[in-house]
Backbone:
């Protein structure tokens, strides 16, 4: 693989002239009671004043900030939160990401109340966003990894220290699938599980060839990788023509096989009409999804 793209240096602070207001201090962040997500001892997401959303936790990665800057630069017509600042506290190891607050309601909360014309309008906006994302050329001929050429951020590939034979980055789809199979083998060893050993052997002999025989159709594609309704923000104007959407939570975005956007969305399906509607704007990959679901259940349950 060619050398990875250069990462920007931490700490990162946007030019003050581009900020809507002075950035919040750590004390202000810690004192905020406007909790969007999280709880003590884990990742928190809080709103600060009218302009800022802050994520903070020791477990955060700079990849989400890198992704936000990447999307802002390369996908200018897709609405996403702007990154304002990102740093790691040298005292306690807490990682802070300050982003733009965007108004609206999540599609998850709105969906049961929407009319069919409203759903159609939102899906049309989402289709255009996905088309732009999927048309981006990858930085190298073949790469499956982060936007800076680092390891894959999706939780299925996560392990302590992100070993490259499991977490990537990968040069080809064979190695991408083997990353998951290698993780099954690590789980088998850690749990002294013959069942997982046999499953890993089955996946390598049976599933791996089924993926790679269609490798030409599985090109490296820029992928959000968590396209659930909770990560789509909707704002209404005075009629359907003025509905706007924003896409949130780019933490695990990167370069994945072309089927991964649908596969990762499938993992979060709640089995109402959303899967059917999503299939009208994003090509379903039934064979790849069924095979990946087997690996997902082995690794996640």
Residues:
């Amino acid at each position: 693989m060619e050398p990875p793209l250069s990462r920007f240096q931490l700490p990162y602070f946007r030019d003050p002239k581009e900020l809507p207001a002075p950035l919040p201090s750590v004390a202000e962040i810690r004192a905020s009671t406007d909790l969007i997500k999280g709880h003590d001892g884990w990742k928190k997401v809080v709103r600060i004043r009218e302009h800022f959303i802050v994520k903070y936790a020791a477990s955060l990665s700079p990849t989400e900030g890198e992704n936000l800057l990447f999307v802002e630069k390369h996908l200018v017509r897709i609405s996403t939160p702007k990154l304002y600042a990102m740093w790691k506290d040298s005292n306690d190891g807490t990682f802070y990401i300050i982003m733009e607050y965007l108004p609206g309601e999540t599609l998850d909360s709105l969906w049961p109340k929407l009319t069919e014309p409203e759903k159609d309008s939102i899906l049309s906006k989402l289709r255009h966003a996905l088309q732009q994302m999927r048309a981006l050329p990858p930085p190298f001929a073949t790469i499956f990894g982060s936007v800076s050429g680092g390891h894959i951020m999706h939780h299925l590939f996560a392990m302590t220290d992100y070993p490259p034979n499991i977490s990537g980055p990968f040069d080809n789809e064979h190695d991408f699938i083997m990353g998951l199979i290698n993780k099954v083998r690590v789980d088998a060893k850690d749990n002294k599980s013959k069942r997982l050993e046999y499953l890993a052997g089955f996946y390598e002999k049976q599933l791996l060839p089924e993926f790679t025989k269609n490798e030409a159709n599985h090109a490296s594609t820029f992928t959000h990788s968590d396209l659930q309704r909770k990560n789509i923000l909707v704002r209404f104007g005075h009629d359907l023509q003025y509905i706007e959407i924003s896409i949130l939570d780019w933490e695990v975005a990167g370069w994945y096989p072309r089927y991964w956007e649908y596969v990762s969305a499938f993992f979060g399906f709640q089995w109402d009409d959303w899967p059917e509607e999503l299939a009208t704007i994003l090509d379903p990959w039934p064979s790849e999804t069924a095979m990946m679901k087997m690996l997902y259940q082995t690794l996640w349950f």
Q: What stands out?
A: The chain has two domains: 12-100, 104-301. Confidence is low (pLDDT under 50) at residues 1-6. The radius of gyration is 20 Å.
